[in-house]
């Protein structure tokens, strides 16, 4: 033991420092530095390939408040958040409860995998697929509506300014429901079985057990899942970018797509940085709550 | 350690179910409602699977049939769509995705486990600060860092190389990886390393001979999560790599679509090829994936 203690003391500085240094370097260079740089960029006017940045103070932030597209985008992000929470958190919890019910224990493992498949598929594949599904000429959505006699509902979902954002959101629900359901399944499996057995002895039905045992027991998971969903909705980029590129007009614009277009399409990097700063502030609030509640990194 | 072991849980469930099976005789009411719920579950599974089935079937059709024979099976099975897709570019996207994913996995596992080793074995003020620094990395979102990262990678002369993706992917995967592995390392009994030290094992030896071999399960989880992320990542892949020969599958598919115009069967074949590796991963390594997702749910 004495020798061992000596070894630890000798290596105390070298090994641990060498071991953690690469990680700190990676995070510092590729995560924290860009974050700080982005806030600094918000005060400048510059383009992608220009070497010079012109200091313009708070002008970009003032512009944010006058930019009508920002309001449309923010509203779309909020719609995304509200619908996703209703569908993915509420519906996913019910789905998970049903899948964990012993009545369905034979078919549940298969269904779990089926519901999870879209989560594993790249967003670009999913979005290209939904481009076909929503296609007004040959898409299976309108084809199906005509089949059941609802042909007056068959509209160009992505080409219509009132429906485009909802079509994008619907695809997101289709893809992500399995993910949140899986998180709930794991949470439900952690609930002590005795609680349900005791309730059964007291003659509680399934609905009663769901309301008075499942929901209180998975409260924390519900909260975390809500925050994941809301944060995701505030950041959403891929889905609207691939399906509609924010259009028609600005009808399905989100904050991230607006940032991308301002920066990389219109080469208005300074203003795009200000939009990114806005996104950061919005998500940081949710992330802080999330980390406080879930207690990541706590010693177990 | 309060880690969920899905298998153990499922076994327990089975036992409970068997015990109560004799007790609970299903009356007719439960049977009816069971079948209604089952119908709902199957309908939902159909809703998930049908678009994917349509994608696979249509990938074997000619353009004309995709357009005019939306629901039916192909009259002529165009298996050559797959070889055409492969030779028209999917092979190079596939190879790039493979290289980027493998490199990311290797770096994340090595760098992440090293940092976790330090964080779980040593205590000091600096270690605590490093831990907070790393957990904080979970809060940061790629969208916000996009423009500064683009500048940084341009300055490093890495833009439009595979390294642009590998390095940024590693950075964004490290926080979660370190947190998962560290939690696992903390559960390794101290007696093991004490006896190793007595046997003259160095610090490095403790890491490679004791910690790493004992942590295979959590490392597999990390590998699955990282593979899933790197294979499907879209935003960085689109913006940091411009050259068609270096693109990964998610961003390459966009180019593929633009180049093919109406050769939809080939495009759909490419989409199927892009999805297959991750679906195999899901089916084979489901247990590890579920564990990782539930423990890493703070990130989503």
Structural class of the helix and strand makeup of chain A? mainly alpha
The top level CATH class name of the largest domain in chain A: Mainly Alpha
User: Helix/strand-derived class of chain B?
Assistant: mainly alpha
Number of β-strand runs of chain B: 0
Major protein interface: A-B, 105 and 115 residues
Low-confidence stretches of chain A: 296-300
Record field, number of beta strands of chain A? 2
| Number of helical stretches of at least 4 residues of chain B | 14
CATH fold node name of the largest domain in chain B: MetI-like fold
Assign the CATH superfamily of the largest domain in chain A. Answer: MetI-like
Radius of gyration of chain A: 25 Å
Number of domains of chain B: 2
Shape estimate of chain B: globular
- What share of the residues of chain A does DSSP label as strand, in percent? under 5%
Mean pLDDT of chain B: 85
Round the mean pLDDT of chain A to the nearest integer and report it: 85
Low-confidence stretches of chain B: none
The fraction of residues assigned to DSSP E strands of chain B is under 5%
What does this structure look like?
The complex is a heterodimer of chains A (300) and B (300). Chain A has two domains: 2-41, no CATH class; 61-294, MetI-like (MetI-like fold, Orthogonal Bundle). Chain A contains 14 helices and two strands, in the order H-H-E-E-H-H-H-H-H-H-H-H-H-H-H-H. Chain A has helices spanning 2-11, 14-41, 59-66, 68-100, 108-120, 123-133, 140-147, 164-189, 193-201, 206-217, 219-235, 238-243, 255-265, 269-294; strands at residues 44-45, 54-55. The longest helix of chain A is centred in the first third of the chain and has 33 residues, at 68-100. Chain B folds into two domains: 6-58; 80-295, Orthogonal Bundle (MetI-like fold). The two termini of chain B are 22 Å apart. The model of chain B has no long low-confidence stretch (mean pLDDT 85). Helices cover 78% and strands 0% of the residues of chain B. Chain B is an all-alpha fold and 300 residues long. Classes of the chains: A mainly alpha (300), B mainly alpha (300). At the A-B interface, helix 1, helix 2, helix 4, helix 5 and helix 6 of A face helix 1, helix 2, helix 3, helix 4 and helix 5 of B.
């Amino acid at each position: 033991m004495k020798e061992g203690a000596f070894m630890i003391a000798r290596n105390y500085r070298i090994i641990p420092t060498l071991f953690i240094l690469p990680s700190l370097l990676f995070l510092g260079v590729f995560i924290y530095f860009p974050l700080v740089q982005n806030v600094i960029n918000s005060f400048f006017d510059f383009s992608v390939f220009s070497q010079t940045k012109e200091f313009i103070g708070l002008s970009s932030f003032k512009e944010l408040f006058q930019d009508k597209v920002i309001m449309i985008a923010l509203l779309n992000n909020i719609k995304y958040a509200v619908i996703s929470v209703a569908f993915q958190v509420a519906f996913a919890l019910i789905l998970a409860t049903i899948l964990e019910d012993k009545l369905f224990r034979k078919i549940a493992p298969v269904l779990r995998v089926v519901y999870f498949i879209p989560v594993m598929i790249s967003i670009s594949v999913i979005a290209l697929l939904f481009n076909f599904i929503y296609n007004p000429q040959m898409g299976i959505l309108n084809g199906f509506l005509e089949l059941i006699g609802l042909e007056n509902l068959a509209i160009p979902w992505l080409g219509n300014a009132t429906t485009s954002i909802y079509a994008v959101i619907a695809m997101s629900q289709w893809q992500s429901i399995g993910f949140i359901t899986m998180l709930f399944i794991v949470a439900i499996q952690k609930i002590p079985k005795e609680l349900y057995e005791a309730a059964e002895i007291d003659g509680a039905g399934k609905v009663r057990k769901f309301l008075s045992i499942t929901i209180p027991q998975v409260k924390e998971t519900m909260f975390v899942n809500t925050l994941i969903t809301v944060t995701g909705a505030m950041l959403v980029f891929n889905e609207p970018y691939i399906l509609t590129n924010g259009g028609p007009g600005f009808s399905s614009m989100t904050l991230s797509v607006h940032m991308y277009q301002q920066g990389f399409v219109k080469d208005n990097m300074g203003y795009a940085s200000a939009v990114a700063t806005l996104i950061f502030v919005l998500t940081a609030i949710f992330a802080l709550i999330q980390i406080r509640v879930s207690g990541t990194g706590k010693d177990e | 350690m309060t880690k969920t072991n899905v298998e153990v849980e499922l076994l327990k469930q089975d036992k409970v179910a068997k015990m109560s099976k004799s007790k609970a005789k299903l009356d007719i009411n439960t049977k009816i409602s069971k079948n209604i719920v089952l119908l709902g579950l199957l309908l939902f599974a159909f809703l998930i699977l049908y678009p994917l089935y349509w994608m696979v079937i249509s990938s074997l059709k000619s353009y004309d049939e995709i357009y005019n024979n939306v629901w039916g099976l192909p009259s002529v099975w165009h298996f050559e769509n797959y070889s055409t897709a492969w030779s028209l570019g999917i092979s190079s996207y596939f190879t790039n995705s493979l290289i980027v994913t493998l490199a990311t996995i290797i770096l994340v596992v090595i760098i992440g486990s090293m940092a976790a080793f330090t964080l779980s074995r040593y205590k000091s003020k600096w270690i605590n600060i490093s831990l907070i620094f790393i957990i904080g990395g979970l809060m940061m979102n790629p969208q916000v860092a996009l423009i500064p990262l683009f500048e940084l990678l341009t300055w490093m002369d890495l833009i439009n190389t595979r390294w642009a993706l590998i390095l940024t992917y590693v950075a964004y995967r490290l926080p979660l990886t370190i947190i998962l592995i560290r939690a696992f390392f903390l559960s390794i009994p101290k007696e093991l390393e004490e006896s190793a030290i007595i046997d003259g094992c160095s610090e490095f030896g403790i890491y490679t001979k004791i910690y790493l071999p004992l942590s295979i399960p959590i490392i597999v989880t990390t590998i699955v999560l990282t593979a899933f992320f790197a294979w499907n990542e879209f935003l960085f892949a689109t913006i940091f790599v411009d050259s068609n020969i270096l693109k990964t599958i998610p961003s390459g598919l966009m180019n593929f679509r633009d180049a093919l115009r109406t050769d939809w069967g080939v495009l759909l074949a490419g989409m199927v090829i892009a999805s297959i590796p991750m679906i195999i991963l899901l089916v084979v390594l489901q247990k590890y994936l579920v564990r990782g997702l539930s423990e890493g749910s703070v990130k989503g």
